[in-house]
């Protein structure tokens, strides 16, 4: 009888311990390196998202959230090894990250091997939820197709010729591929494609090839640039006076620091993922107010994305009532949740978050350090025909 009672007590203690076990989440991202600014925004946003979704308790169903940070230094091998460490040694329930698409592609097979959830935020390449996707991958960040379709809607027009310049890796290549497809869907096309290494600082040769390809074309001419990090291709190519060939520079949204350069392009149109003054909803109101109070600045491009990922993680665990992977997948497929951008929804087919994008026109405002992207039109989930690419 004593043995039976003791066994019952041990079982009860084990159940109690399991019921109140910590929830471990790893944030694996390029904390140091060229995308450091993106990484900080993403992490700040992730923590704010967890706080918002838990009402400030940092607990889900009575279980404490433990955050583990790991720095990939933007190296794919590091990302792979650190995710293996997080799933294996740290026994995290799920992971979030990374910043770089190249690092993300190295991490995807690890999620499948360990059968654990990886919420991709903010890496953009289509192949993450396309050719290289597996069922353990969910992405809260926008993909290249969402950028491309939104910008195609914003830029394409009758007798408009568009050339492109992008970085020569997954982010740039996937972005242009999706942009080309999106343009074709609205009856337009690309006049010339140009790719440059990510560390390029001299764009003279690339710009001259673009000018030569477009100078004899009739109609409206635009150079659409997809670029992340340094180099300032917009400013350097603008200094070469593309207007002598009738060429206007166009691009999508960016972080506030990068948008200082946009002040040289008043009236420029494009599409953006987020600008803190555009979305009108309670989640964004909270984010803007809280971020201003804590950091003395408005939230930025990737802050909103990080917050969307944090809220998604909490809502998924609440909905599943568990951190069991299969129960999380069931809960997350088709899940809708509220973010600073409004409602997002994980598409069941590829776990890509469907979300609004914003057609903008640049305005220069006295006293504001960066160019202001004024809203022309919100492009809702229903306005954006985003292809499924994982088949």
Description:
The chain has a six-stranded mixed sheet, sandwiched between helices. The chain is α/β, with parallel strands linked by helices and 391 residues long. It contains eleven helices and 16 strands. It has helices spanning 2-19, 36-53, 76-88, 101-114, 144-155, 170-185, 204-214, 233-238, 282-295, 301-320, 325-332, and strands at residues 23-29, 59-60, 63-71, 94-96, 117-120, 137-139, 160-167, 190-196, 220-226, 247-251, 269-272, 336-339, 342-346, 353-354, 357-363, 372-379. Helix 5 crosses helix 6 and helix 10 crosses helix 11 (325-332). A hairpin with an 8-residue loop joins strand 15 (357-363) and strand 16. It folds into two domains: 20-142 and 280-354, Response regulator (Rossmann fold), CATH 3.40.50; 145-272 and 357-383, Rossmann fold, CATH 3.40.50.2300. The protein starts with a helix and ends in a 12-residue tail after the last strand.
Quick take:
The chain is of the alpha/beta class and 391 residues long.
Tags for this model:
391 residues, alpha/beta, Rossmann fold, 2 domains, 6-stranded mixed sheet, 11 helices, 38% helix, disordered N terminus, BCAA_transport, signal
* Percent of residues in helices: 25-40%
Unreliable parts:
2-20
User: What gyration radius follows from the Cα positions, in whole Å?
Assistant: 22 Å
Note the run of SSEs as H and E.
Answer: HEHEEHEHEEHEHEHEHEEHHHEEEEE
How far apart are the termini? 60 Å
Q: Name the quaternary structure.
A: single chain
3D shape = globular
The average pLDDT score comes to 93
Described by strand count, sense and barrel closure, the largest sheet is: 6 strands, mixed
- Within CATH, the superfamily of the largest domain carries the name Response regulator
CATH class of the largest domain: Alpha Beta
Number of strands: 16
CATH topology annotation of the largest domain: Rossmann fold
| CATH architecture assignment name of the largest domain | 3-Layer(aba) Sandwich
How much strand? 15-25%
How does the helix and strand content classify structurally? Answer: alpha/beta
Family: Belongs to the leucine-binding protein family.
Organism: Shimia thalassica
Keywords: Amino-acid transport, Signal, Transport
Domain Leucine-binding protein: 23-363
């Amino acid at each position: 009888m004593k043995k039976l009672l003791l066994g019952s007590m041990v079982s009860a203690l084990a159940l109690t311990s399991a019921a109140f076990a910590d929830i471990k989440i790893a944030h694996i991202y390029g904390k140091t390196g060229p995308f450091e600014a993106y990484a900080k925004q993403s992490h700040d946003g992730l923590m704010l998202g967890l706080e918002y979704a838990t009402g400030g308790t940092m607990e889900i169903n009575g279980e404490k959230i433990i955050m583990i940070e790991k720095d990939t230094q933007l190296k794919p091998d590091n990302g792979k090894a650190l995710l293996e460490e997080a799933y294996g040694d740290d026994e995290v329930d799920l992971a979030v990250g990374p910043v770089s698409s190249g690092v993300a592609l190295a991490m995807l097979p690890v999620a499948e091997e360990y059968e654990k959830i990886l919420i991709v935020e903010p890496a953009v390449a289509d192949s993450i939820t396309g050719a290289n996707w597996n069922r353990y991958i969910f992405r809260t960040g926008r993909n290249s197709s969402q950028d491309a379709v939104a910008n195609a809607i914003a830029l394409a027009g009758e007798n408009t010729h568009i050339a492109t310049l992008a970085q020569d890796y997954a982010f740039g290549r996937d972005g242009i591929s999706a942009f080309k497809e999106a343009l074709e869907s609205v009856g337009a096309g690309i006049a010339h494609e140009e790719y440059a290494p990510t560390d390029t600082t001299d764009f003279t040769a690339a710009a001259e090839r673009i000018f030569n390809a477009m100078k004899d074309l009739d109609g409206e001419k635009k150079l659409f640039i997809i670029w992340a990090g340094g180099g300032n291709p917009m400013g350097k190519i603008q200094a070469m006076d593309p207007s002598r060939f009738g060429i206007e520079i166009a691009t999508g949204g960016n972080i506030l620091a990068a948008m200082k350069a946009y002040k040289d392009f008043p009236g420029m149109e494009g599409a953006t993922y987020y600008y803190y003054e555009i979305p009108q909803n309670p989640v964004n109101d909270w984010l803007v107010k809280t971020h201003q109070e804590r950091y003395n600045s408005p939230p930025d491009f990737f802050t909103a994305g990080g917050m969307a990922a944090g809220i998604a993680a909490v809502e998924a665990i609440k909905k599943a009532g568990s951190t069991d992977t299969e129960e999380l997948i069931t809960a997350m497929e088709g899940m809708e949740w509220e973010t600073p951008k409004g409602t997002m929804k994980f598409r069941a087919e590829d776990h890509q978050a469907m979300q609004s994008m914003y057609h903008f026109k640049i305005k220069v405002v006295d006293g504001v350090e960066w160019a202001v992207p004024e809203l022309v039109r919100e492009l809702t989930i229903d306005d954006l025909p985003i292809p499924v690419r994982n088949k």
